[in-house]
Amino acid sequence: MTARLDGKIIVITGAAQGQGAAEARLFSAEGATVILTDVKVDEGRGLASELGANFLSHDVSSSADWEAVMAHVVSEHGRLDGLVNNAAIFERNRLVNTTEDQLRRMLDVNVMSVFFGMRAAVPLMTDHGGAIVNISSVAGLRAAPGSFAYGASKWAVTGMTKTAAYELGSMGIRVNSIHPGFIDTGMLPQNETVRENMAGIVPLGRVADPDEVARLALYLVSDESSYSTGSEFVVDGGITAT
Question: Is 227 marked active-site?
Answer without folding.
Answer: no
